[in-house]
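Marked as duplicate of an earlier ticket. Keeping the data here for the record.
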Amino acid sequence: MNTPWLVIGLGNTGTRYAHNRHNIGHMVLEVLVGRAGSRLSSHKTRTQVADVRLGMMPGGAPGPRVILARTTGYMNESGGPVKALARFYDVDPSTRLLVIHDDLDLPPHVLRLKRGGGEGGHNGLRSISAALGTRDYARLRIGVGRPPGRQDPADFVLSDFPGRERPELAVTLEQAADAVEQVVTLGFTAAQQRLHSA
């Protein structure tokens, strides 16, 4: 089967958002693009994409074809471009779409793979579910924790990771990229079992 995987890293476009907690999906995508020795290029679907082979299959063969992508607008407008990409590459969201995003409900730097379910108040996921007409797609959730005190959650996710977290963040990004590679090479269930037993 030649249908690629579609891996979306969620975030807001622009330098002012680049290091926000909300942009951790973009950060993971950059790690994956770098691992593949590729670069993101503009696509007519209001996205930037890299068409790559990702990871290594058991036995040493090159990994499957993967479209690494991020939208070029705001997080809450992700749905339209993701739907257009899935249509362009003939990807069934229920089997070969993986969305990488920040998650307030997980402790900082905890990774979890999930298929389907609610959006947990995440505007990017909400937009994607509405555009696709389904919640039945895979997500890689990356914990950012809850805001301290009475800080508004929206302000919290739109703030940068503090300097003291940067070393741990670098490790988290690599671990998240590993998880993505395992999803596309081993399958979702095997990758989920491996990640959650670590």
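See parent ticket for discussion. The CA atoms of residues 45 and 84 lie 6 Å apart.
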